[in-house]
Amino acid sequence: MSKPKIFVLSGPSGCGKSTIAKIILERHHELSFSVSATTRPMRHGEVNGKDYYFISKQDFENKIKNDELIEWEKIYGEYYGTLKSELEKAEKMGKSIIFDIDVNGALSVKNKYKDKAVLIFIKPPSVEVLIDRLKQRKTETKESLEKRSERFEMELARSKEFDYCIINNVLDTAVGEVEKIINRFS
User: Fold this and answer.
1) I want to staple 90 with a disulfide (CB 3.0 to 4.6 A). Which of 22, 97, 156, 167 is the partner?
2) Which domains does the chain have, with CATH numbers?
């Protein structure tokens, strides 16, 4: 990569952005992954420091106060955000970085980093497919599924503000399209 870039994968919960990011990172060791911080409880199988930095609300609020975050948002009563230290670590290694964050966070990154940030919206083939994917994860209660569904319209509408939009109907195809975008900046 000529100049390190910030590649931001975003879209509604269940669109496949985390799966795509993992596959890309397995194939592209020249990229770094930005581990987000959250106050939400750890899900079964998640690893602190790999999937998220799981921290207390007090710690998160201190990070906000101390300007230690690139972006942050409170969603469903829990904080989510990106630590500045993640970007600093990648920059020291001369690596481009992949973020896997929510839509508003992605737009905040673009606002801060302008042309250095490349926003890629991962779109589901339909809202029905998205809901099915969330149900198949078996991590959602009926209430949390309803809360997530309430955000879909806003998130899908904001896709127009992204640099690229990829429909994740067939995973291998979506991964290939993301790779093509990344390779354009090599």
Assistant:
1) 97
2) 6-184 (3.40.50.300)
